User: Fold these one by one.
Assistant:
Number 1:
Amino acid sequence: MQVKNLGEFGLIQRISGKFESPDQQGFIGIGDDCSVIPKDDLDSYLVTCDTLVENIHFLISNIEPHDLGYKSLAVNLSDIAAMGGIPEYAFLSMALPVETGTSWIDKFLDGLHDLAIREHVVLAGGDTTKSPRNIAIAITVIGIIKKGNIKRRNGAEPGDKLFLTGSAGDSGGGLRLLTEGHENEADQSATDLIQAHNRPKVHTSEGAWIGTLSAVHAMIDLSDGLASDARHIAESSGVSIRIDLDKVPVSESLLIKAGEYGWDVTELAVSAGEDYSLLFAADASESDRIQSAYFEKFGEHLTCIGEVRVGEGVDFYRKGKKVKKPYHGFDHFKK
Amino acid sequence: MQVKNLGEFGLIQRISGKFESPDQQGFIGIGDDCSVIPKDDLDSYLVTCDTLVENIHFLISNIEPHDLGYKSLAVNLSDIAAMGGIPEYAFLSMALPVETGTSWIDKFLDGLHDLAIREHVVLAGGDTTKSPRNIAIAITVIGIIKKGNIKRRNGAEPGDKLFLTGSAGDSGGGLRLLTEGHENEADQSATDLIQAHNRPKVHTSEGAWIGTLSAVHAMIDLSDGLASDARHIAESSGVSIRIDLDKVPVSESLLIKAGEYGWDVTELAVSAGEDYSLLFAADASESDRIQSAYFEKFGEHLTCIGEVRVGEGVDFYRKGKKVKKPYHGFDHFKK
């Protein structure tokens, strides 16, 4: 059997099945956006690792090195945000072909540096090595969190409402433009979508704020796509999730380009991934309070897109009716 | 300019030059075997990252997956040992071609697991992703250390004696056997050398013990080779290092195979790297006490191979005379 038959989540299960996870106070191992390790009486550290590989996660021809440096850090910061924490330290491991230009590297580092400065993240270490062919960027980020603020995937409760920060589908739209020969389109909508893919907004302030809300029971970031990430919450929490497709927020730019090229907006919003919006489940009785406090703090709408129920799996509804079409998220080994 | 012109250490300088290292209590950034981040009043965390890339660091045909899993973790544990710490958590990121066999992955994980169990290290997280061609393994290890025990590269003082745990050159000898068509030799000496390369002994207990000795002023592990690693201590500490080549311990197995194939034993011991012995500088007045305590604790000799002087650079001596031949260690981008 090959890893492509196993798929990403099968592989992760195979790994975690081999290794004991100790029942240690303040420790959380494989299976969430971050691991949690003990720090001191008040705080824990969150640890996350993400790897971007050339020709898998990015094409050199489709992303400026400055954007790639930014994005490589952003995807890791998003995992810290998804647990409710604040990122503190980054560790950068680069595997580079010997022909890699130093000006490319400089721009990559500048992009990473820009985001690190903005988010007060310190580049604390890493590793550099040669690669035979493809660039590979592996980043580890360590964040800090008050013990009581940790938001896992497994706490969603039947009756909770489901919320999404930002919107869904822009990154997928950007990827379609880049890979279907429209990478040079310069109208505002195209620019917005390509930017959403190459230089995603990362919801760090939002995540840290949501972490402080005791009414929030579970959280995840949209990296694999709404269908897949909602399923992670449903499976970890032992619940069913209903998502109302009419409520899933999509941007004006995505609607414009989808109209132009005949894309299925729902497919992009639900299956494409890499949006790095935050998806969370919170006590229904606190919904209004959370939504208005969010708007007051961030000047943007927090959208209720569904609810948590007894049962299992993720169901999609449109105009109150269950949608038959199955939506899937991204699996690194199957696509 | 390309990264091959810059070299590994030029690239690291370029990275660290772009990023501010904050003057934060209890924090040490880029430039040592590990970074140090604050934990609590008593302890700090050590963090290290190392990447192994197929066809650069290993050939699938030359190393059993079980050994590769073991080695991938070992090289990281060695960095924790080199600062005097105790490894606690490992994070495994794997980039795998979709055709990678699950039985290969299982054996890789078993090898990693064996060492993790032996060293009481918990696999706490990581990442899995697709790779277009080569396997890449990036591991981050977090260790713990009492604040007063941290051994850096920069504390060596003129007058210190220089010590080496274990021996040097076996791993380089093993690599020559593997790459020069002798990979199937099964005599004890060949087996020892190939094992030293594919499944290196990692000096974790030794490192943690050396960490407790206040007479030890600087430490590093032999990953790039004695010449290069001694130079790291000399440059960081602003001192000169004298190494007596007659004293550098080499194994019986290395002498036997070197005799058989006409290898330059000194070249292997000084330049080849990947031995993961520990090199440290300690107060000369404590030399005898440290050596006898080491022998009592580990049942092996700790060898004094030279001394620290005022000045700069690393000088090699044989029979009391300075050797003119320059020895270099390993540079990932130049070799």
Number 2:
Amino acid sequence: MSEDRAVVLLSGGLDSTTCACWALREGYALHALSIDYGQRHRLELERAAQIAEALGVPHRVVRVDLSAIGGSALTDAAIEVPKDQQPSGAEIPVTYVPARNTVFLSVALGYAEVLDARALVIGANAVDYSGYPDCRPAFLAAFERLANVATKAGVEGRPLRVLAPLLQLSKAEIVRLGLELEAPYALTVSCYDPVGERACGRCDACTLRLAGFAGAGASDPVPYLG
Amino acid sequence: MSEDRAVVLLSGGLDSTTCACWALREGYALHALSIDYGQRHRLELERAAQIAEALGVPHRVVRVDLSAIGGSALTDAAIEVPKDQQPSGAEIPVTYVPARNTVFLSVALGYAEVLDARALVIGANAVDYSGYPDCRPAFLAAFERLANVATKAGVEGRPLRVLAPLLQLSKAEIVRLGLELEAPYALTVSCYDPVGERACGRCDACTLRLAGFAGAGASDPVPYLG
């Protein structure tokens, strides 16, 4: 068991919630960080706060207005969220937010410096999201190397680790892990295009999530449209 | 001469303004980016906009609220800005903003992706600011490696360069370069603790700046207190 501090990037989604539960089981003194990056839907941030509270973990929100530079269907209202598509690992989807994980990990790195934390925990996944460059193992390894030359702690010999416990898991394996850890999945939100509190059930994120629960032989506690 | 696009991080200070002029001379189609990171003094952002306009360069501001995680005299009003100190390269000063250049370069990386730019230009300097880990050559090299596994362009074989043209220059050499490039120094602001539009003349940033102009045999066009 570690008693070190760790910062978990908590989006309010299924993966990051599973990560937070994993880090608690590992014994980290956990601090949750959410990034308000100008996402179209505010539900994610509300849920992140509720999940942190349910887990008894302190929570901060840092605003990073990525919509000021545009470029993604998730921040730019002029780009349509694709529906009813077969998710593919081959292409980079329009829901890709430019340099998203680089920016998120950088802010988490700053928070880790303030807290003198020894780990950053991120729900990156290379199986279902291999179309995103910043979800790949080479990216996470490069960020860890950067972190240890970028910071006071790093240059003073107290290294920081970047932990991505879901990196090589399928969505079904993630769901199984989360259920084992009693993750508060009813509070999570994955949908790119929710209507009120209900998930659309048709965007890439919903399709993957539903397949994950099906593969784990479980039912998803969140409400869907229709 | 390059005709590639480049993103320059423009703070409104002397170094980043010199960098912007340098990148224009190199022939880059330049886009200026300022980060509103919750700095105590808003003058920097106003001046950055004026400098971009003077140079005829498009300008964007992205808000990244680093004050939400605290930890620096530049964003946290509870920490005092040191005055009348001898700048020292040995220690990390309280004006250090956690992971500042990592966060700034990450946002610039996102903007570079949107623009399909080939270079990030940053006024990092390892001579006067060697107390800051994120101003060192090893940091910049690590960020460039990260950038090229983090982004669509990088993984598709269109690499991005991180250019820090001032890295090994003394402040006097920077001032000489900027004067040669006719940098609009009258618009720049360096002071950590200005009163209205006047620089304090006593903080580390003022002390370095004044020594730089003296070393270049020039006079600083900005107004000082007293």
